[in-house]
Amino acid sequence: MSIDGLLDRVAAGEALSASEVLELSAGHDLLALGTLADAARRRLHGSRVTYLRVAVCPFDDVRAGVVPAAAREIRLAGAPDSLGVALTAVERAKAVAGGRVVSGLSWADVARLAADAGVPPARALADLRAAGLEALAEIPIDAVADLAAVLGTLTAAGFGPLRLTVAAAPLAPRTALLLQVAELQRQSGAIRAIDPLPTSLDAFRPTTGYDDVKAVAVARLAAPNVASVQVDWLRHGPKLAQVALIFGADDVDGVPAADEAPEGRRRAPLEEVRRNIDAAGLTAVERDGRFQVVS
Amino acid sequence: MMIDRIARHVIEGGRVNADEALDLYRHAPTHRLGQLADAIRARKHPARVVTYIIDRNVNYTNVCVARCNFCAFYRPVGSADAYVLGFDEIFSKIDDTIALGGNQLLLQGGHNPDLPIAWYEDLFRAVKARYPDFKLHALSPPEVLHISRLNQVPVPAVIERLVAAGLDSIPGGGAEILVDRVRRLLNCYGKASADEWLDVMRHAHRAGLRSTATMMYWTVETDEERIEHMLRLRALQDETGGFTAFITWSYQPEHTERGGVEATGVDYLRTLALARIVLDNFDNLQASWVTQGGKVGQLSLAYGANDMGSVMIEENVVRAAGAAYCMDEIEIVSNVEDAGFTAKRRNMHYEILGDPIFRERDIPRMLALETARAAGDSSVPEELRNYPARSRAGKQLRLAQ
User: Fold this and answer.
1) Residue ranges per domain, chain A?
2) Does B298 sit within 8 Å of A210, measured CB to CB?
3) Nearest CA in chain A to B293
4) Interface pTM (ipTM) of the complex?
């Protein structure tokens, strides 16, 4: 497999075959993988990297005072006990958010709340959407039995474009799932972004730097028809999040909206994220929760 | 096109000059820099072995008169939380190190005016008497210079006496950036000018010692000065061949007088890759996971590093400045193997000692690095009374003992 040949094809917008992606994913030539993913990212986004400032609020404590004005999205954290509690939290968040996106809950939360309420997930989703929820925080591609059906249910309930996540799958099965995501995107066009790094972290067996940047690069190459590959600023930290930007990521999610600066302005979150993007040779652009550029 | 030409030159084994190094650093894409550095690593280490050492990073005192403005570790003479480790404390640390499969102390400390050369000689002799095979990788060039000035003994004689007492090799600390303009701004010109740092290393190499070389970047230096630093090391290595390895890390700003922000992960990988390209006469480049974290530390293996440095066991200096990463042997080996390399233990001379020790016997997991002393421990070692103090505070402390 000639990397130069692959690079020409990627730069021209051609998708690599599943076997090529699987072979790259299984190999140790990290820089070749990064070069290919970076070329794919640049073809889609040039030097632009977007970032999103998020106010993360516990679902049981949504008040105007805890949501900074700079937040572009309000993300409800935690797992409410019942659909009624969830709906109340969403309504409160929407009242505080105004025109900003309210996100929260995982697919598993929705399934549980629906079951407990004795209604189908589609009904629970429709109610949540009506209350003001615009996006689920986690739709883990490795933790749902039938991803196509889940995406169909979500879009039918008015959610979308969708942001997919990964719970814990190791790289090999994750690569296969990402190829499946690309196929679903060809059919539905409903997917806006994927965050390919695990949301579930194991302190005793942490993922490695190779694991993480490979996952980002593989996501970019496996699903070139999904516009954005994300990294999470808080979950992965500035160093890894920045390096991921040269391995195919184009969007930094989870930037704290509270721009406190006890260590001085230059170490405040907004300055840090912009400085890191700039130091990667890229251009920082702020977006809102609907992926619209705001600055 | 210029980058392509320089890249071809590097791939063909050519040496880059200052202008070419600057072009690469400023204009080559990060993956391209990495590929050049990785090609050199592969040429020097074709067996895809990545080494590491099990040793302990011990700081025998935090008292320092140098007052470098980038340092968060030092304490002025007479400070309430100043310390000097006792010989028994150091022996205990050696016992713990040996239990974890270690074979060496990396022993460095502040420029303490109340520790005469005899203290170092007695310590080294005592260590060697108890642990004949244990290695002392000790005293960076500014410390050697401090001992020379304090005791009015020329540097070659200091080295000779310390070697006679048991010194095995010299760590490359205190280099920062080997450009005097930078050193003046960092308030570290007084502890050692660029020439003085290099001269200590020259004398050490002539005396048969091997040493490492370091670079702390991202304070006030320009790109050109960073490259000048590398070129000065390369020139001395051409002359003596005494450096075993090069280690670079970014300035850690927290709690320092200088303050500021830390270099980013991409900056680190680019700097490391450039060092691999410029320092063509250095066999070994370490990954600084203790400042960059395990993830970027592992990624260093794709950007020119062939060594994961030390398991470390203990660390005090960069921790004081905000970096508190920890990797035990299991995690280092797991990172090496995950990146497609074979992990081997080594000594300071980069001689292979064997496979990971945890595969030979049970080793306790280590999830946080130790510190020099437990918080609040202000004990004064009894043997200090045997050594005359120079400072007023030191003399008062001796009288109180």
Assistant:
1) 17-52+136-286
2) yes
3) A239
4) 0.93
